[in-house]
Amino acid sequence: MTAPLLSVDKLDVRFALRTRRGLLPTWIDLRAVDSVSFTLGAGETLGIVGESGCGKSTLARAILRLVPAAGGRVLWLGEDLTKLDDDAFRRRRRDFQIVFQDPLAALDPRMTAGTIIAEPLRTFHPELSRAAIQAKVAATMRDVGLAPEHINRYPHEFSGGQCQRIGIARAIVLEPKLLVCDEPVSALDVSIQAQIINLLKRLQRERGMAMIFISHNLAVVRHLCHRVLVLYLGKAVELAPTERLFARALHPYTQALIAAVPVPDPAVERNRSKLVLRGDLPSSLAPPSGCPFRTRCPKADAVCAQSMPALLPVASDHTVACHHAG
Amino acid sequence: MTEPLLAIAGLNVRFATPDGEVPAVRDVNLAIEPGECVGIVGESGSGKTQAFLAVMGLLAANGRASGSVRFEGGELLGRDRASLDRIRGRRLAMVFQDPMTSLNPYLTVSRQMTEVLMVHQGLDERAARAEALRLLDRVGIPDAAQRFDHYPHAYSGGMHQRAMLAMALLCRPALLIADEPTTALDVTVQAQILALLAELRHETNAAIVLITHDLGVIAGLADRVGVMYAGALVELGPAAAVFANPRHPYTRALLGSTVRLDRAGGDLVAIDGQPPNPLRLPTGCAFHDRCPQTFARCSSEWPALRDVAPARAAACHLDSA
What pLDDT sits at residue A21? Predict the structure, then answer.
């Protein structure tokens, strides 16, 4: 087996929050990402799922050093990114790019589509001529389904779906080895979502990029990803190949998450067995003792309150963190 | 024949904007019977919310509704605010998409709920508190008695939406309009709220209009489904039939472009282009420039919604032959 492209090893991200307890202000640690590990092969798409506040975006941002890691390693082709100085890191940056959730907010309103897409090229290839940059931008626009004659338009002149295409064009113009997509279709209408999902799927296939796809929408994740990592309150609770996960998820949280997504077909939806979780996500400032999911888990018992279950393999490619799995 | 609970006829909503008049809702006809659940699905800008804000008399100041909206036998359009207020909140209630901004942050939940009962039903404070607390407990607020006198900020997103539902149901309305009630919530909480809506429906016998962009949300709950596109109702029929055998090309396209959890892989059938700008609607059928089956008549003549089978209606020239 070849070495993975990306290997995330016990990654921690903490945010220090100032609170007032009694008279004196104190700092408390919010563990946004708590010792998460996974690997990603070239050309592979990994889905990261979980509810709001589970740490999925923070995890991706920590990998790209958009937020600092408090511990652990991020190995990119064997080299620890967390240890690189800023200059050395910046040179690696061209290999991993990100697409954000809100397409309009992610684009500078004072720059034209062409300038936005050309910016990474000008940064990393100052030697390129204007004509060469122009040609590359036009080709990339065509590749993501934008008309190159719109190159001089500003973001507000495009629809939400087209803005997301500009964001994708900017991300792939340097031909990165890894594309991180943070909820890239959540802000879009259904008919536009399908266009962007098909586009991402085609780009991934044609260019052989690895992808990290962050989403709260499990249907989209099933559609696009080879493997899925499930996070709950900053902890990895299950990791498995997509079809295996949907056929037999072992963590009660994964099972509940899958059961909660409605199927747009009354004939199917009305006959599904529903496992409806009680209660809300606990605050990450005061996570429960032991297993973080135990306060909402139908299987929880005394042992779950005492110790956090380790993430253990149940098959060569399937790991789960639950005292009662299997 | 008795009159339906809600009868919308020839409803048009237009907004005056600096760029000209925007037709947001175009000639919508829809009747809702007591106790039934009708799902209204459409993409942003399809007019699904504006149509029902017009029913509630809650359009923005630059919006004008014309046509007719009859509720329990009386006309709602053109009523003054005082007489609307006697119906709204009592017989007709609405919950909105963003639960966090729907409760007044300066008043305790108990105060907001008891006020409704005291104003509309003339209960004294003691009786109103007891009834409000009973409902707050019923909608599944944990430790409702302790949380009753809290301010809204102490509630989570899911608890906000539960409290909104409790408030909407305080006076046992005959019709509840729920506008994207779960869109702002996580899926696990969405599942809780949808299960609650289904239970409340059977307990209270209220008719429900469920407005959403998510076909999945409607699939479990709605008896009938209405599909809106560019301000017009383009398809209406029993939920099972519309999902299994859509008659309008837009409904078909919407189903084809929806990712399904129970299916793996394969390419989605995306609809090219995007919904039209209401300031520049295409001539004829508003969907014709995205429709795979379009023909000459589609660009010249607007197809009205007409019956195409028992209990089913579609607004498409393909179906008029």
Answer: 67
Using CB atoms, which residue from B192, B254, B270 is nearest to A198?
A: B270
Summarised one tens digit per residue, pLDDT across range B95-110 is: 988 877 888 999 999 9
Beta strands (DSSP E) in chain A are: 6-21, 24-40, 45-49, 71-76, 79-80, 96-99, 178-182, 210-215, 227-232, 235-241, 312-315, 318-320
Residue B252 has pLDDT above 80, yes or no: yes
A-facing residues of B in 248-277 (CB < 8 A) are: 253-272, 274-275
A297 burial via Cβ count (<10 Å: 0-12, 13-18, 19+): buried
Please state the ipTM of this predicted complex. 0.85
Closest residue to A263, CB basis, from B191, B261, B275 = B261
pTM: 0.90
**Among candidate residues A196, A134, A189, A135, the one with its CA nearest the CA of residue A165:** A196
Each residue's pLDDT tens digit, A188-245: 888 889 999 999 999 999 999 999 999 988 999 999 999 999 999 999 999 999 999 9
Q: Which of A197, A268, A281 sits opposite B259 (nearest CB)?
A: A197
What is the number of residues in chain A?
326
For an interface test with A, give the residue of B141, B259, B280 to mutate (most A CBs within 10 A): B259
Q: Which parts of chain A register pLDDT below 50?
A: 1
The CATH 3.40.50.300 portion of chain A extends over 6-225
Indicate the CATH number of A6-225 among 3.20.20.150, 3.40.50.12780, 3.40.50.1370, 3.40.50.300.
3.40.50.300
